[in-house]
């Protein structure tokens, strides 16, 4: 609904700011740094997106390395004109994740030139593991491909020995 009324850029900017503000509040003597992952919609990402993110990080005195921006495949790979904005953020340490990877817009050329640092394998490939041999093959191939390109791999929802054995490094809910 917010997307259809054109409210997502404002809402997204608020979410980014509030999440970073909260992370700033948590900082203290006993604070253990962790990566903050924020989903970003297509309508948020424009030519000034990198400036907005840099401003929020500077205002909150947060290291860029602690921020990971999660993009759907269509946003991550769908508009090469945005790669310059993504590259500017990557240059200061911000990480990018392709969310729900494998269900949409990706192709090998995009993986080669897009500034993605993490692939989040869509749960549809993980849900039937280890029973579905085809899903096993796809998951193994994606993990191997991602690692070969220097990317991390995350899967959603279910932990399986197959994934751990093949080098998947994290899970998310």
UniProtKB/TrEMBL annotation:
The record's listing under CDD domains reads: EAL
Where the record annotates domain EAL, the positions are: 1-173
Spell out the Pfam families in the cross-references.
Answer: EAL (PF00563)
Q: Which SMART domains match?
A: EAL
Q: Which Gene3D superfamilies match?
A: EAL domain
Instruction: Offer an example of a GO molecular function term for this protein.
Output: cyclic-guanylate-specific phosphodiesterase activity
* Stored InterPro entries: Cyclic-di-GMP_PDE-like, EAL_dom, EAL_sf
- SUPFAM superfamilies, per database record: EAL domain-like
Q: What is this protein called?
A: EAL domain-containing protein
| Source organism (scientific name) | Serratia nevei
Lineage of this protein's species?
A: Bacteria, Pseudomonadati, Pseudomonadota, Gammaproteobacteria, Enterobacterales
């Amino acid at each position: 609904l917010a997307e259809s009324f054109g409210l997502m850029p404002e809402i997204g900017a608020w979410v980014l700011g509030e999440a970073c503000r909260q992370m700033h509040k948590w900082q203290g003597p006993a604070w253990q740094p962790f990566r903050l992952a924020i989903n970003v919609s297509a309508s948020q990402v424009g030519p000034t997106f990198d400036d907005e993110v840099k401003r929020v990080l500077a205002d909150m005195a947060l290291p860029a390395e602690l921020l990971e921006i999660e993009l759907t495949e269509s946003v991550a790979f769908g508009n090469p004109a945005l790669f310059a904005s993504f590259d500017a953020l990557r240059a200061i340490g911000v990480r990018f994740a392709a969310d729900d990877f494998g269900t949409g817009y990706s192709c090998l050329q995009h993986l080669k030139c897009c500034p993605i640092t993490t692939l989040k394998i869509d749960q549809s490939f993980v849900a039937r593991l280890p029973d579905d041999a085809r899903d096993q093959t796809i998951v193994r191939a994606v993990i191997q491909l991602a690692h070969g390109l220097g990317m991390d791999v995350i899967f959603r929802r279910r932990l399986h020995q197959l994934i751990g054995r093949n080098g998947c490094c994290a899970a998310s809910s």
